[in-house]
Design a protein that fits this description.
The protein is mainly α. The chain has one domain (2-48, 60-258): Growth Hormone, Chain: A. It has helices spanning 2-23, 25-43, 60-76, 78-99, 101-109, 113-140, 143-160, 167-195, 198-212, 216-227, 232-249. The longest helix is centred in the middle third of the chain and has 29 residues, at 167-195. It is globular. The chain starts with a helix and ends in a 23-residue tail after the last helix.
Length: 272
């Protein structure tokens, strides 16, 4: 499932890049609108077999209680808690900056629609490449070190991005950015998938998303305000936040952690 999601997230920007290059930025939004209409139509055609729920969750109160249990389970695990708090600040530095990439390319650098399309295609290639090389990189580095190294790479790519003044080098920076972000995403999902019991996995993943994206709306708001002054500061500031968060994490036991389906580590020790 994670492979399917990652692939879709990688291919999506490539398709959008081609659409932007051929139809322009505004007209491409109509394709986006039509896609959502198509999704609504196709979802109504899905046939499924109704089964009796076996989790004893039959009311909103029980659903809320189950969600709280998932949150408590996630936060009681020392490694989960450490990674999610660290990732909270990484996303704080990243979310607003990523949303400003297109604005920067069009309004600040002044790229044409075709050039923006090429940059977005390189962004997609970064995500696809990270998926293709993920297992090979993980065979060389421990998961914790790989997570921190990819985060520092994300910080470096963000810092260098505003200093590029043409589509090719901007595309290279975005490629590196999406490559490292893809590695981070896959590593965190692998951690949960390899160490959480199946009956708790959904609740743990939901809790992890809640915690790690808590500051994302604040990041976007701040990025919009800063962009009115100078959009370069959005990328540089995001880079500094990610770098500081990662340097702090380097002084914890995160760099020693290792997790996979077959690896034994502190990640596979269920908290009491």
């Amino acid at each position: 499932m994670q492979m399917a999601i990652s692939t879709a997230e990688a291919i999506g920007p490539a398709i959008s890049g081609l659409l932007i290059s051929t139809m322009g930025l505004f007209n491409s939004l109509w394709i986006n609108f039509a896609t959502f209409i198509m999704l609504l139509t196709t979802l109504s055609l899905i046939r499924y077999q109704k089964t009796e729920p076996n989790n004893n969750i039959t009311s909103p109160k029980q659903l809320w209680s189950s969600s709280i249990q998932g949150l408590h389970y996630t936060l009681r695990n020392p490694l989960f808690r450490l990674i999610l708090i660290w990732n909270l600040f990484v996303n704080f530095g990243l979310s607003g900056a990523v949303l400003m990439i297109l604005f920067h390319l069009k309004e600040i650098i002044g790229l044409t629609s075709s050039e923006i399309g090429l940059v977005m295609t390189m962004s997609a290639l970064g995500g696809i490449t990270s998926g293709a090389l993920f297992s090979r990189i993980q065979a060389i580095f421990s998961s914790g070190k790989m997570l921190l190294m990819s985060s520092l790479t994300t910080s470096l790519a963000l810092f260098l991005f505003p200093f590029q003044d043409n589509w090719f080098f901007s595309g290279i920076m975005v490629f590196i950015l999406m490559f490292s972000v893809g590695l981070n995403s896959r590593l965190i999902h692998l951690l949960f998938q390899s160490s959480v019991p199946a009956n708790k996995l959904g609740r743990v993943i939901s809790a992890s998303r809640l915690i790690s994206t808590l500051l994302a709306p604040v990041s976007v708001l701040i990025a919009g305000l800063i962009a009115k002054i100078n959009s370069d500061y959005v990328f540089i500031g995001g880079s500094i936040i990610i770098a500081i968060s990662t340097i702090i994490a380097l002084n914890t036991n995160l760099k020693e952690a290792n997790w996979s389906v077959n690896a034994k580590s502190i990640a596979n020790t269920e908290s009491q």
